Structures are given as structure tokens and as C-alpha cells.
Amino acid sequence: MEYKFRKAQKDDASQIWDILQQAIDRRKEDGSKQWQDGYPNPDVVKNDIEKGVGFVLTDRDKIVGYSAVLINDEPAYAGIEGKWITNDDFVVVHRVAVSSDYIGQGLSAQILKHIQSYALDNNIRSIKADTNFDNPAMMKIFEKLGYVYCGEVFFRGSARRAYEKVLE
């Protein structure tokens, strides 16, 4: 496998949406409430790409994973119930999803490792992310990669677990 991580382009939108739909279905099958309220949706993907914050993981020419990667752009994080480790610039990770054909191959962790490189390339030493309380797989990945649980943040009326990783 030859994985690459790059900015998403307009032509990628339908493949990205397919991957997100697969992830939405998996979350539902797992009994999760995450992503069961019409979010994310094709407009979210379109906006990510237009703003230059959508990123894809590819296996040769095939898109196998997706994430939105923003810098200093998550207003909900200002209202954390808890405390972030740092208050400097940070990269935000949202909407990590992997194709059903590639589940169990560690690609979510690989996406997060690429995001660490992206942060360092931008001279940023903090990555912040969140996930639903009913997403143990993502919590396990965060903890395995050295993210620290910092408290709760709130999106669309519900609490989510907030994590931060400080990069060396």
C-alpha cells in the first residue's frame, strides 16, 4: 500500500461523501448517536473543500480516508468544561472517516499522524479534537497516539469528549 495525504479537490467530493456515509452507517450499527442528525452531509464536504480544510488519504488513486483539518478555527472549544493543556495556536481535527474496505488497518491513526506532520509544518505544536462519548474506537486511537482527555465541549446541543496532543 502506498498511502498519501493531500488536500481534497472538488472532484473528490463524491468519493468523500461515500466514505462519510459508510462511517455514518457504521456509527448507527454500533448504536452510536454520533453523526445521526444529518451531519455531516454533502454541503459540509463541499464547504470543507472550498475552504481548503478537507484532506484525503489515498491508496494510489483511490480515496480511502477523509478528515477536516483546521487551524485555530473551532469556536466551541473556547467553552470547554475542563482545561486545555495549551492556549497557543492549534490544529483542529474533525470528521475522521475511513472507507469500509479499509477498516481495521490502522488508517484513522495514520490520518492523525499525517495531521501531526501538517501541524509541525505550520509551526503549530498542539492538536485538538473531540469525539462522542459513545465512540470508544476513536477514544482508543486518541489515547494510543498520546492525546490527553481535557474535558467536554458542546456541539449541536450535546457534550463531546475533548482531547489535545502537544507535539514535541
TrEMBL record:
EC id: 2.3.-.-
Organism domain of life: Bacteria
GO terms for MF: acyltransferase activity
Keyword terms: Acyltransferase, Transferase
Stretches assigned to the N-acetyltransferase domain: 3-168
First-level EC class: transferase
SUPFAM superfamilies found in the cross-reference section: Acyl-CoA N-acyltransferases (Nat)
Any Pfam family matching the protein: Acetyltransf_1
Annotated InterPro entries: Acyl_CoA_acyltransferase, Bact_Acetyltransf, GNAT_dom
Name listed for the protein in its UniProt record: GNAT family N-acetyltransferase
Organism: Flavobacterium suzhouense
Lineage: Bacteria, Pseudomonadati, Bacteroidota, Flavobacteriia, Flavobacteriales
